[in-house]
């Protein structure tokens, strides 16, 4: 089913516009909440994924978070420069780069579960539980191929 046509399309009324605007609002609020930790919302997924052992290589992180490898490399460079993670080559396969959080990276990533949910909950405060579940369901449906 086509929900848009060239005649009826209005960029500011499109789903893409609304999703992008919602993303920008969320990023701004998240970045403000993370300012004291000297990280950005882009770093949250990386740090939490590494902390939980879900991903330990740049490739795994790129795939999990849906971030292209070039951008992932730049973000990892920043986190490494801040002293939050270390890179090392795999002994078994020198092409593979392993990632490990430093003590400071562990400390900062340990604070994220106390910050991120508060920002998200504040943005979702007007939603009922049913509306929240429906939003998640619809976003997952939108993202599915």
UniProtKB/TrEMBL annotation:
UniProt keyword list: DNA-binding, Transcription, Transcription regulation
Domain of life according to the entry: Bacteria
Lineage: Bacteria, Pseudomonadati, Pseudomonadota, Betaproteobacteria, Burkholderiales
Record InterPro entries: HTH_MarR-typ, WH-like_DNA-bd_sf, WH_DNA-bd_sf
Pfam families per UniProt: MarR (PF01047)
Signal peptide region: none
Protein name: Multiple antibiotic resistance protein MarR
Keyword DNA repair appears in the UniProt entry: no
Gene3D superfamilies (alphabetical): Winged helix-like DNA-binding domain superfamily/Winged helix DNA-binding domain
PANTHER family: TRANSCRIPTIONAL REGULATOR, MARR, TRANSCRIPTIONAL REPRESSOR OF EMRAB OPERON
GO molecular function terms listed in the Swiss-Prot or TrEMBL record: DNA binding; DNA-binding transcription factor activity
Keyword DNA-binding included in the entry's annotation: yes
Domain HTH marR-type: 1-144
């Amino acid at each position: 089913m086509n929900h848009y046509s060239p005649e009826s399309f209005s960029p500011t009324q499109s789903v893409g516009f609304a999703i992008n605007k919602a993303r920008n609002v969320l990023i701004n609020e998240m970045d403000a909440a993370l300012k004291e930790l000297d990280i950005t919302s882009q770093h949250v997924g990386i740090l939490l994924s590494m902390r939980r052992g879900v991903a330990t290589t740049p490739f795994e992180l790129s795939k999990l978070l849906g971030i292209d490898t070039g951008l992932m490399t730049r973000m990892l460079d920043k986190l490494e420069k801040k002293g939050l993670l270390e890179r090392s080559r795999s002994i078994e396969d020198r092409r593979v780069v392993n990632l490990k959080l430093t003590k400071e990276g562990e400390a900062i990533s340990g604070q994220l579960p106390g910050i991120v949910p508060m920002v998200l909950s504040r943005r979702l405060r007007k939603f009922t539980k049913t509306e929240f579940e429906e939003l998640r369901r619809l976003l997952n449906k939108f993202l599915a191929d």
